[in-house]
Design brief:
The chain is built from 8 helices and 10 strands. By secondary structure, the protein is an alpha+beta fold. A 10-stranded antiparallel beta sheet has the order 3-2-1-10-9-8-7-6-5-4. Strand 4 and strand 5 (140-148) form a beta hairpin. The two termini are 33 Å apart.
Length: 253
């Protein structure tokens, strides 16, 4: 099951999630999201969520193409050769799926992470639905839990994020994410660490004249973790094992 889910790990990263060993019970952070968000920012985690312009609100049809695939540490350092084979097979092959942006209780436009993850995972697997349940609270958005129809679950946690508007109608976002894949037996969970950097630019519906209103470049980097051994982490010196670059277009639905 984990091998099949690796096909759509980008869904977790790109839609913003990450790993926690255990899903917390209802906590103060969930009951008092405003206080939790203030604490998150005070600790240096960045904004409490990614916030998007009004233009993004609503449903979109997204076309995403993997245009580049790099291994900064060398192919011999990539532990799972299937990742390399998969990336080569997906290169320049468009993937079409839906994404949606909603308002939180504060009225800000945010990504609907439940909808977006399910849509991207399903599209990545050719329409196959492997997710039984997704737990995520838009008022406390840093943690998500995914339950599989078969096999272990996945926990994700955003550990740091950043956003900037470098120019008019441009938005850069970055999130660092941990992912924990539960083991089906007594083995320790598998831990992954990733960064998702996305650069958006957009135009009005009138200006787009029926074409995409939003375009983006998305770079997803996977980093070694202590799960792979302290020596691997030291050798990496902060470099990612694999870097995927996608070109994306958003068409209003």
């Amino acid at each position: 099951m984990e091998d099949r889910f690796q096909l759509s790990r980008r869904a977790l990263v790109a839609s913003t999630l990450t790993g926690v060993i255990a899903w917390p019970e209802k906590s103060q952070g969930m009951e008092l999201p405003a206080a939790a968000n203030q604490a998150w920012e005070a600790l240096g985690g960045g904004p409490s969520d990614l916030f998007y312009p009004e233009t993004f609100l609503g449903p979109w049809q997204v076309t995403s193409v993997l245009v580049d695939f790099e291994m900064p540490m060398g192919q011999d350092k990539v532990k799972d050769a299937r990742l390399v084979q998969r990336a080569k097979s997906e290169m320049n092959d468009p993937l079409v799926y839906e994404q949606r942006f909603i308002r939180n209780k504060a009225g800000k436009v945010i990504a609907d992470r439940i909808y977006n993850v399910e849509a991207l995972v399903t599209a990545s697997l050719g329409g196959q639905k492997i997710l039984e349940d997704i737990q995520w609270d838009p008022e406390d958005p840093n943690i998500m839990r995914l339950s599989m129809r078969q096999g272990p679950g996945v926990f994700t946690r955003v550990t740091r994020r950043f956003q900037d508007e470098p120019a008019e109608r441009r938005l850069d976002t970055s999130e660092f994410i941990e992912q924990v894949f539960e083991s089906a037996d007594d083995r320790a969970p598998r831990v992954k660490a990733s960064r998702c950097l996305t650069k958006y630019k957009w135009r009005t519906t009138v200006e787009s004249q029926g074409g995409p209103s939003i375009v983006a470049t998305q770079v997803v980097s996977d980093f070694p973790t202590s799960f792979e051994g302290a020596e691997v982490v030291l050798q990496a010196q902060g470099r990612p094992e694999i870097v995927y670059t996608y070109k994306m277009t958003f068409q209003k639905m």
